[in-house]
Design goal:
Layout: H1 2-17, H2 19-23, H3 32-35, H4 38-63
Helix pairs in contact: 1-4
Amino acid sequence: MLITGILITIVAIFMLLVPQFFMKLKSPRIPDKLLKNPKMKIILRIWGGIFVIIGILLIVFSII
């Protein structure tokens, strides 16, 4: 659980910092209209924040 929490936290931090990278992944394919929408970056940052919290909780629960 500790390793999983660390991996989730690292990926989520990158999702917060560089949402454009995750928007350009090929699977699932996102239409170009959505890629240019600034709201999409906000949504990815919100998901990143949620996963950071989940990753930290996994780390905490594995240590306890």
